[in-house]
Amino acid sequence: MEALRQELDDLKASALDQIDQSADPAQLEQARVQYLGRKARLTAILRQLVALPPQERPVIGLLANQVKQAIEERIAARRTALESVPSDEVLATDRIDVTLPGRWPTVGRLHPLTQIIREICRIFAEMGFAVIEGPEVEWDYYNFEALNIPEDHPAREMWDTFWIDPTSAQVDKPMLLRTHTSPMQIRIMEQTKPPIRVVVPGKCYRYEAVDASHESQFHQIEGLAVDEGITFADLKGTLYAFVRRLFGDERKIRFRCDYFPFVEPGVDMSIDCFRCKGAGCRLCKMSGWLEILGAGMVHPNVLARVGYDPARYTGFAFGMGPARVAMLKYGIEDIRLFHDNDLRFLQQFP
Ligand code: FA5
């Protein structure tokens, strides 16, 4: 009996040792078969208990079952441990260095033109202007005719036009890609009654050579205010307030006569060059002034065209190129940079 007891102790010790040493599930299974399988020594001892003398049977039986249970528990624990450890193969291919600093995901940002358009519209919105948009494919009527630019008017040459092929578009009136946002003046006045205060951002198209300050597709922001008693002083005051919000309080402004068929009088507006403070530099082409928009008092013919009484209502309108404004604000020398999609350029506008 003493010998059997010793054998069971040795069996237990070597089984637990082998289980602990098994490096993968296959080795563990091998140990299980060896110590608990049909041909295992422990199985034989348990099977032959009946052959033992009656006084030894319960003692050896208890001991043999305790050994069996201890081996089973150790196998289960080892299996759980082995399953939670990735295999060498996984470790080799799926290596993660948790000490490396994390990689920041690239976060997109708004295009600088979108930013400046929103900034300009926000300034006017705070002054009580509504922001609306309109169609880029336009009738000749809105783009020219109703704006006091009849078919034979020389001012049409100011806006080289992309015409829509009437046959393929199946239209019986001349259609075009709008050359400016001014047609929205007519559309808005047709649909509403004064008082009107709106700004209209949007894309425009001109059939012209692309260079450092011209593109064939570009943005404009139109402004329109119509009511009783609106004067040129309102136009100046509004544009002064806008320029100072955008470019700073110390900016000087200059209005000069200009010609647009749909305003009378017409002006262009410049600001003093903030780079050279008016002394003359490359940015302002040595003039000390930077032109940013065209404007004027809405022509009586235009008011009459939409059914407003020009004796009762007056209004002002302006149109600016936001790319030009952004170029001035940030000292950008070539308008084409906006659409080159060079991240080094775009990332400068957070
Ligand atoms: C006009 O288009 C008038 N509709 C503006 C206006 C509105 C006058 C209301 C009076 C009353 P002009 O052609 O100057 O005007 O264009 C206005 C601005 O659009 C320019 O100052 C410029 O900033 C921008 N612009 C014109 N052509 C291009 C172009 N090819 N590429 C980029 N910007 C342009």
UniProtKB/TrEMBL annotation:
SUPFAM superfamilies reported for this sequence? Class II aaRS and biotin synthetases, tRNA-binding arm
Which controlled-vocabulary keywords does the entry list? Aminoacyl-tRNA synthetase, ATP-binding, Cytoplasm, Ligase, Magnesium, Metal-binding, Nucleotide-binding, Protein biosynthesis
Q: What are the names of the required cofactors? A: Mg(2+)
According to UniProt, the reaction catalysed is:
tRNA(Phe) + L-phenylalanine + ATP = L-phenylalanyl-tRNA(Phe) + AMP + diphosphate + H(+)
Supply the Pfam families for this chain.
Answer: Phe_tRNA-synt_N (PF02912), tRNA-synt_2d (PF01409)
Q: How does it assemble?
A: Tetramer of two alpha and two beta subunits.
The molecular function terms in GO held by this entry are: ATP binding; magnesium ion binding; phenylalanine-tRNA ligase activity; tRNA binding
Q: Which domain of life is it from?
A: Bacteria
**One record GO biological process:** phenylalanyl-tRNA aminoacylation
Q: What is this protein called?
A: Phenylalanine--tRNA ligase alpha subunit
